[in-house]
Please model this.
Amino acid sequence: KQEVTQIPAALSVPEGENLVLNCSFTDSAIYNLQWFRQDPGKGLTSLLLIQSSQREQTSGRLNASLDKSSGRSTLYIAASQPGDSATYLCAVNYAGNNRKLIWGLGTSLAVNP
Amino acid sequence: DVKVTQSSRYLVKRTGEKVFLECVQDMDHENMFWYRQDPGLGLRLIYFSYDVKMKEKGDIPEGYSVSREKKERFSLILESASTNQTSMYLCASSVVRGHTNEKLFFGSGTQLSVL
Model:
């Protein structure tokens, strides 16, 4: 079964820490993987999209990596800030899944001043 | 920047009412999606559309229908609202590249309460 798992479900860190969020998927045959951010009661904002042929993508303090062989992606946030507090979701576009994304349940991040 | 606009931020309806949720995108995207999001269940796909007048069922289509008469607009219809349809509804759009979606753009969501 094609699934996406995000561990931990919640994370609390002091401001300034570098941190890693994890996303695991069950089938290496994927087209791409996306990381999103969601603030409470709001819609989702796409942060990074990694194509199947890529190993990583960077945007500002964010870096996402992709390892298809191990079924893992990580989102690295450098020098975390209170404004980074949000839920981070991972979504995988599995091959043969007719453009339907499979979603993780997210990691709720709190960055404390 | 791409904008996806959902017509209502909050909506309160009564059981049995017919409910229309509207979504408009301004970037000529082929794909449009309707999701619902519930605590502990994550995002679940209700319907998606890959072209005008084309639609496909997602994982939880029961009790819902959709309409896409124009490329920029994708409507979700609750034929007879029930309390178990109380949820956050999220619309999204994306460009298509071959068999896959590119980056998804989401609206700000509609929190629907059915009493």
Q: What stands out?
A: Chain A touches chain B at residues 31-32, 34, 36, 41-46, 49, 89, 91, 93, 95, 98-101, 103-106 (CB under 8 Å). Residues 91 and 103 of chain A are 4 Å apart (CA to CA). The mean pLDDT of chain A is 94.
